[in-house]
Amino acid sequence: MAALFDKCGGYRALHSFTYATLVHLGTISFCKRFISYRDDPLGKTSGQMIGAARSGRQNIIESSECASTSKETEIKLTDVARASLGELLGDLEIFLAEQGEIPWSRSSEPYRELAAIQLEPFVHTHDELHDYWVYFRSVRAKFAGWMDSADAPVVANALIVITLRTMAMLSGQVRHLGEAFQQQGGFRERMYQCRAEARDAVATPNAPQCPECGKPMRLRKAKTGEHAGEPFWGCLGYPECKGTRQADAGRETQVP
Known about the structure:
The chain is mainly α. Helices cover about 55% and strands about 5% of the residues. The protein has helices spanning about 15-35, 45-65, 70-100, 110-115, 130-145, 150-185, 185-200; strands at about 215-220, 230-235, 245.
């Protein structure tokens, strides 16, 4: 029988989540170190940047946790995470512009060095929460040379590179989720399928035995072919067993 609920959670295994965590914590540190409240004309730039970084990370969590019952929500929230990081990206660009700097070129050495960093898979024991933050500390160390720099434009550029990488991963996840939805459908379709399978697993009272395997049969109605709409007996072992019998003309042929 088809599974009613999809898997949910497991977001800590996603590299996009680890990068989003790196961006979130990095943005908090960046704002504390380099954006003075007194120099902020609107008095809310730091809050909006940290909020956007947080939204990127938290929406990955929420999208993963709701995956069991709503593919549509999972897709939407994953895209919200990507869009939130896009908002942060805009603020980082403006920060560099205000400093008289421009973002690193993709062909520049620091950009290529950052982009070349690879993450190991997250492997955990029964103590997943503890294990994740041990793992994250090792990941954070790979980026420390840029993230802990005293040069604000260096940190801003590093955050831009990591943010762009995270957004690219999330775009790939949205595409993958969309393709999976097209092929497998969503929760409502699974509910119908499971209900139909449960109903079909019950034999019709006084049903004959299957001529192929001897199991009880259920009265069904042909959906296609020249006999479409006509009742027939189908084996409860379908699809493993495809045994059928013609409906007895003298027997009640109303399909339940």
